[in-house]
Known about the structure:
single chain; 198 residues; mainly alpha; 0% strand
Amino acid sequence: MKLIKSLPLEYSTEQNQINILGFWIFLGAEIMLFGTLFASYFTLVNRTGHGPTGAEIFEITPVLIETFVLLASSFVIGLAIHAMRIGRKTAVMSFLAITLILGLVFVSFEISEFVHYMHMGAGLQTSAFTAILLTTLGTHGAHVTLGFFWGLFILLQIRKRGITPEIANKTFIFSLYWHFLDVVWIFIFSFVYLKGLM
């Protein structure tokens, strides 16, 4: 394994660079997935049938908290990458742990939001609107949940093996994934919640 010392650790081998490129390609596929969900949502948003509308079921306060929590986690994972680049193992682990805790807080809010929707009569079979709403939110929530376990495994690897080029590569790729989920959430917040409350 040939190290390229002028590059950050996560890019420092040819394999690491290939891994990062491959992950960008994967994120392109993820953009297509969420793009399809958003296109479906915009098509079905007014097809509420006898079910509730977004304005009737959305509550802005929990959504604002979710947004703040996820954006804060994105900032913290950025701090983790910075700490990784200057070789601070303890700081990387601390920032990564905080990121994962914030991710859990986000998921817990999303679960309580789903319970609220069910109590309001907004289930998967209520209307086309509620079906695509729950599918879109659920897909994003599932990605955050997957990200939590992925990040947890990386955290355990850092604790056991330290910051190697391979682990730095995994950590950086995880940060790209986490930032991507935050960007998707900004679209959900803006075009699902805010627009739906109008």
